[in-house]
Amino acid sequence: MSDFILQAPEGANKKKRIVGRGSSSGRGTTAGKGNKGQQSRSGGKTYVGFEGGQMPLYRRIARKGFSNAQFKKNVFSLNVDVLDSRYSDGETVNKETLVAKGLLKDASAIVKILGNGDLSKKLTVNVDKLSASAKEKIEKAGGNVVADVSEEK
After folding, report:
1. How confident is the model at residue 149 (pLDDT cuts 50, 70, 90)?
2. Is 106 exposed, middle or buried (0-12, 13-18, 19+ CB in 10 A)?
3. Which residues contact 91 (CB under 8 A, 6 or more apart)?
4. Distance between CA 40 and CA 30 in Å, rounded?
5. Computed over its alpha carbons, how large is the radius of gyration of the chain?
6. pLDDT for residue 153 is more than 80
7. 110-114 and 150-152 beta bridge pairing
8. How far apart are CA 87 and CA 97, in angstroms?
9. H/E element holding 92?
C-alpha cells in the first residue's frame, strides 16, 4: 500500500518569504529593497526604454521613413486540395460558401486559389485571384472559372 502515498520530492515546496515584518524576521527594515532610490519606493517601477529621466533614445531620434501598413491588402490563400476535401461535385466556390464552410473568417478579404494538390470534382470558382496552375487544374477537372480573375504566379 505504500506505493500509493504521494509526496512532493525534497525541496519542491518552499516556504513563502514574508518581508517587512520587523528586524528579527531577517527581512525587516528595508525588506530586501536596499537603501533609498526609485526602486525602494512603492510604485517605483519603470517602463521599457526608461533612461532615468533622460530623454529616451526612441524620442530623441527623428521619425523617418514610410510604413506600408495602412495600404496592406489582406489576402487569404487556399489550395485546390482543400477545395477538393470540403466541396462536393457541382458546388460553387465563392466568398459566401467559404465563410459558410468555415474556411474564411473575413468576407472582405481578397481570396486567392493556389494550385497545390489535386482536384477531382467539378467546381464553379468565383473568387478574386487565381494562380495559373489552379485555373488549369479546375478546368482539367471539368469545372469553370466565372469571374475575370488576374492570373499571377
Report:
1. low
2. exposed
3. 97, 121, 123, 124
4. 8
5. 32
6. no
7. unpaired
8. 9
9. strand 92-93
- The length of the chain in residues reads 153
What are 98-134's pLDDT values in tens digits?
999 999 998 889 999 999 999 998 999 999 999 999 9
pLDDT at position 6 is 87
Q: Which amino acid is it at 62?
A: A
Instruction: Give yes or no for a contact between 32 and 45, defined as CB atoms under 8 angstroms apart.
Output: no
b/e sequence 31-66, b meaning 16+ C-beta within 10 Å: eeeeeeeeeeeeeeeeeeeeeeeeeeeeeeeeeeee
| DSSP symbol at 66 | -
